[in-house]
Amino acid sequence: MVEQLAVRMGVAGRYTDIHKMLAEVKPDVVHIATPPDSHVFLATTALRAGCHVFVEKPFALTETEARKITDCAAEVGRRVCVNYLYNYEPPALELERLMAVRALGEVVHLDTQYGYNLAGDYGLAVMSDPDHWVHRLPGKLFHNVLDHVLAKVMMHIEDDCEVQVMSFRRRAASGDPVLDALHDELRFMLRSQNVTVSGTVSAHGKPSAHTLKVVGSRDSVELDYTARTLVHSANWAQPASVGRLFPAFVQARQFWRNGWRNVGLFRRHEYHYFQCMRVLLNRFYDAVENQGADPIPAQHILRVCRVIDLLVDGMEARA
Hints:
Keywords: Oxidoreductase. This protein is of the alpha/beta class. The protein has two domains: about 1-80, NAD(P)-binding Rossmann-like Domain (Rossmann fold, 3-Layer(aba) Sandwich); about 85-285 and about 300-319, Dihydrodipicolinate Reductase, domain 2 (2-Layer Sandwich). It is built from eleven helices and ten strands. α3 packs parallel to α4 and α4 (about 65-75) runs antiparallel to α11.
């Protein structure tokens, strides 16, 4: 695979030994996009060699392993980040702005939904190969996507968290024990002090959802990461049944504005599929050059890993 990628991308240097690569290339930053059971070794090795590190999710298999990476980064004075790219989609950046000015008031509840297409390219790679690394994860399929589900809400909850979880396999049995051990539907509820979170991961709901609803004490918003829209919830303020005529038009106007904003982003070449990753990487490299804070604080990385641990424990307890 290293050889294939190097030929395709025209990369002169290609290595299968990280120590040799670090010694010869002496990079400032190392990007790690390998299966997560290799992340601790690769990340800590690169950090101790003086590199900053950007890690693909899942950051690590457990919170304990994640802490080895973040502690190492703190010890050697280097930056570490994880690819929570969807926090930098256009609607997520708008939510960031709204939260900064407390436009929604206090957060009361968040609902986060994520659809996974088992018939898509990634899904077929997992379902056609019992030896795929996803099957080795403690939480299997969910472990590979829960970062996307949880990263959006971690800044709104604390470290102490109550968890309720239910997971199951909805598709018919295949006869392969490895494939059949992989659940494809997940529901969970979190409570952290006065904030609650409900979450859904579904491989069967259509269309595949990728949404977040934030319920605030002053206002509420709904984000669609696929359509790249953010709309405020309808507020029925007019009297009687006549008042119910207006909210649909108010929300339609919001969608219209979202659409034209997206056209503007497209015209400025800021709308490609992984635009959100470009924003995240720009912020990470700004932090590397000491021109900004870490875009994903270590405490948020560890909090995501801790909640995943709790969800995996809950799934195993119900198995």
